[in-house]
Amino acid sequence: MSDRGNDAVLRHVHVLITGGGFAGLGLAIRLKQQGDTDFLVLEQGDDVGGTWRDNTYPGAACDVPSQLYSYSFALNPEWTRSFSTQPQIQRYIRDVAERYGVRDKFVFGCEVTGARWDAEAAHWEVETSRGRFTADIAISAAGPLSQPKLPDIKGIHAYQGEIFHSARWDHDADLTGKRVAVIGTGASGIQIVPAIAPEVAQVQVYQRTAPWVLPRVTHAYTLLERLAFKHIPGLQRLVRALIYANRELFVIAQSKYTPAVALFEFIARVKMWLEIRDPALRKQVTPDYRLGCKRMLISNDYYPALTRDNVELITDGIEEIRERSIVAADGTEREVDAIVLATGFRIADSPTFDLYSGKDGRTLSEVFDAEGLQVYKGSTVAGFPNAFVMLGANSALSYTSAIYTIESQINYVADAVATMAKRGLRTVEVRADAQLAYNRELQEKFVGSVWLTGGCTSWFLDKRGTNVALWPDFSFRFRRMLKTFDVDAYDTTPREAA
User: Fold this and answer.
1) Mind listing the domains of the chain with CATH numbers?
2) Is the pTM for the entire model greater than 0.85?
3) What element of type H or E holds 387?
4) Hey, is 302 helix, strand or coil?
């Protein structure tokens, strides 16, 4: 089914997963391992990998240590560096899909265009670019980093040069010797600028908010280290555990203002002073908010790149884009041959929310607009029976590996599927009161945290100023909370009701 599929034939499966990145692939492997074979994974791309398949911009790499950035059941002793690049991560994902024999469960080139709960039939009707599917259980594993966020800038559609988002890099565009504008200084922006600066004539870096940048403590793994990881039992798991424990310390720093915050800010300021000696430029890159309020970034070559003669940092904002130029808010017009939009992704307003219609006919977008972006344990939403979401609201981690969250949710969702089968349940739907109580308790944990009091506006917050992205506690508590499916928090109907 991976590359074929009967496009015109209605296909019913027990479990239908949307998205073939780390979350969708990991869940497919778990379902197969527990004996559930009646499932499919719909993937709009032509391969597994999700965000790591799509983000192929120059310099693309992970800011989580390699030893943490893998499935716990498929450790990779072949990482060549302590922080891996995009090609290595994508190769790892492909290898895992092959090793665990689930590629035949993927339908590639299949974009989901709508999903509706049919209460009478008690199943989901899913419309796709390759025909219609129905499923007893629908799982969205599309991920929060799947839909690029395009800036609303006057005149952007009138621009006549090459323009593309970092997540949709145009590899046919030759930037050599050109004047290139990079809009955005987030995680992708600070990787792109150093990567292209030596090849282009000029880089104009448009910064809205200065990021906190910490050192990337990285090294290349030697052949001896890789052999040790491969052949000494438990060594790689020990290293992984030590790195995990170290990352958990960041929670203490971000929850309240502690000496750890001051220490990290001091390290970042020393780094800034050592790598940027021009006082004016240093002032431009100095954040005016507390470290941790926005996503902390790591790089050893971003600041040095800003000091190059062919790189200009612009902090005045953008007034408009013309056919061949960008006009800053101070009126300065700069000609530019190509524009790279390093402007992140649609998270709090993901287009995915428009696709799913629940039992009252409202889409997730309509429910979230009316009631706020509330999700139960990052996995289910009241009014949407037999539906689960991977990496849903308040499940992201700003300090450690997203794969840890993903595996936690895999435990929960896979156990939900098993529980429904074991108890003979036709439907499960999280109770509204359970969802409300969970989210009230969750938001209380943010009070006094750097995410709300740090003096910044970040993509962690929705339009109400509520943090809808992050899990505000230790990740092992998230894992413990999702260890098993708590069916008592759900309204259920038995199969006999059919």
Assistant:
1) 11-147+346-497 (3.50.50.60), 156-219+253-341 (3.50.50.60)
2) yes
3) strand 387-389
4) helix
